[in-house]
Design brief:
The protein is an alpha+beta fold and 201 residues long. It has a single domain, classed as endopeptidase fold (from Nostoc punctiforme), CATH 3.90.1720. It is 40% helix and 24% strand. It is built from eight helices and eight strands, in the order H-E-H-E-E-E-H-E-H-E-H-E-H-H-E-H. A six-stranded antiparallel β-sheet has the order 4-3-2-1-5-8. Strands 6-7 form a two-stranded parallel ribbon.
Length: 201
């Protein structure tokens, strides 16, 4: 039994030492809600997403489910060349990387999978978004706004990079976060082309 415990401890220690990268994406589209948020906050980005890979092939957030109706919103998987991002090719973005342990990465995947399995049960936290502008935290297990969602899934995975109530985390808190490394700034539609050129160079 002692050897078995020691072996498990070694596996845990090894997972803690090994690391993976995840990506947090800030965007600003030309949709009316995004422009309204930008006008009010004076911030360059209004939307936040989280991705598991550098190509942003697997990216999640809370946003509109379709292209045109902003009120039909909730947990979605996002694509940089489809949906709202595909419609607005002029979307500006910043892409950050965050290095985490394998254990945190696996837990983050588990947390996201819970959202994915219950995606129809979630909706957008419009009230929480408005309240956050006045520094009033409003939380709900079934409702999130984009940056609140990013902060929540990170926190639930043992990744604590925000020194505030997660219901108050805004895109600005991501933009100025010292734990994140800026990897790209420019048009989201040009990101993959930029990566290929960088890799060739």
């Amino acid at each position: 039994m002692r050897n078995h415990k020691t072996f498990n401890n070694l596996i845990l220690e090894n997972e803690t030492k090994r690391t993976k990268e995840i990506y947090i994406v800030l965007t600003q589209t030309s949709t009316l809600p995004s422009r309204a948020i930008r006008l009010y906050t004076h911030e360059p980005y209004a939307h936040a997403s989280i991705a598991f890979d550098e190509e942003l092939m697997e990216m999640y957030s809370f946003a509109r489910r379709g292209i045109y109706n902003p009120f039909n919103a909730g947990f979605i998987r996002e694509y940089i060349d489809k949906g709202v991002f595909g419609r607005f090719e002029s979307t500006d973005c910043r892409i950050y990387s965050l290095r985490i342990t394998v254990q945190q990465y696996n837990e983050l995947r588990r947390v996201i999978e819970v959202f994915n399995e219950n995606r129809h049960s979630y909706s957008y936290n419009y009230l929480g978004l408005i309240a956050a502008a006045f520094n009033i935290p409003i939380r709900s297990k079934q409702r999130y706004f984009c940056s609140q969602f990013v902060a929540y899934v990170l926190y639930q995975s043992g990744i604590h990079i925000f020194n505030k109530n997660i219901a108050l985390v805004k895109p600005k808190d991501i933009r100025i976060n010292p734990n994140l490394e800026l990897r790209y700034e420019g048009k989201l539609s040009q990101y993959r082309t930029h990566r290929k050129r960088f890799q060739i160079a």
